[in-house]
Amino acid sequence: MSENYRTTRRSVLRATTAAGVAGLVGVPTSAGAQDGPIQMGSILPITGELSAYGSGMQEAVNLAVQDVNDAGGPLDREIEINNTDSQTVPDQAIQQYQTLVNEDNIIGFVGAASSGVSVPLAQQVADDEVMQVSNASTTPVLANIGYNEDETVKYFARTAPNDAQQGIVMGQILNEDDYVGADTAAFLHVANPYGEGLAQNASDAFEGETTEMVAYDPQATDYTSTLDSVFAGDPDAVGFVGYPGNGRTILEQWSNGGYGGEWVLSEGLNSAEFLQELSDITAGMYVASPDPEQTDGADAFEEKIGDANTLFAPHAYDALFLMALAIEQGGEASATAIAENIRSVSRPEAGAMATETETATAEETPSGSVVTVGEFDRAKELIADGEDINYQGASSPVNLNENLEPLNQFAILQVQDDGSTESLETIPRSFFRGQLSGGNGGQETTTE
Known about the structure:
By secondary structure, the chain is an alpha/beta fold. It contains 16 helices and 14 strands. It has helices spanning 9-16, 51-70, 90-102, 115-122, 125-128, 163-175, 193-205, 224-230, 244-257, 272-277, 279-282, 296-305, 313-330, 335-346, 356-364, 376-384; strands spanning 38-44, 79-85, 108-111, 131-134, 156-158, 184-190, 209-216, 237-241, 262-265, 286-290, 369-371, 389-391, 410-415, 421-427. Strand 1 (38-44), helix 2 and strand 2 (79-85) form a beta-alpha-beta unit. The model is unreliable at 1-7, 15-32, 350-366 and 438-448 (pLDDT under 50).
């Protein structure tokens, strides 16, 4: 990432505060002003490769803002949301981010969706003291990004699961005779951190021989040579990590080319429209997909959002709602208050650095008053009374670990003849305990 991405007006102002601004009484800053609307934003894929999901994600953010503001807002201040379009393009997202920070003075934002877009943003949020909560970026790399200089505060969080989980599930589908039972497999992935990271995790979990690891250019229009590379070693199966936009072309050219082999798809391809429109091709394929436990909040969210619901839209609602709760808990409308309090409002029973044993015990005997979708007014009353908050969200219980990310239940899905999916197996959160690593120098962490 070029260095010109890393200097914003906010960081310059912060650096010059001691020289002049500190002496100006009453000069507002985005972190310090404690009256008027709280400026927040979203950077989501309204157009581009993930546009099939972006509008639903943005609608979910707006719904969370409405629910929070209808309850009086955090610290009795309304949230003003500034929505932008990432186009699933890093440079475009960075431009939008700089506008949100320098002109709109946001203290936090929801996004991005693609890991390839979230990573360059997450690399600068700590310097700018802006809180980023991604609803859909799943690369394991993000477990280690977003910390301030002394690594005491993390300004990046996510409500989507770490892809290390999904890689384990894709490997299981490829390994087990009840599903694919492959001896050899190739992995085809979009050329970005999401694709590379998940494909590598799936390959690591696959017990057979990985014949090829092939990246594809999302800007290409012909993938014949890419498919030739994928099938050079005549694999029994293909693990495919990609997006619906170019996924359509790839699968159509695979079908027309008569390459053969079974396919296991990543959650990024789990679009009802995509699978149904290609049902003559996708029928019989397997999908590894997050399948978080249903909460009362999930039902409430689905009723509120209706037909606008898309993949990772519930996670977008939770991202905004959790930031609002953290502001209320922290007593200050600032990114640092969000960063330092977002975990405590998601899972107070775990403590700041719970061990695996402590987390297992806490899960059996949870503490904290449960609040969920649309209950910001109740949360405010509980916080005012000194009660712990345990937010159970639209997407899952959203129990954030020390890396500020949740562990999700997963499902193994199979595409049916009409393009719908049937759940074949549910894999509980407990299955993944102790299998993931990230943060803290690669030490195993509790991800419950």
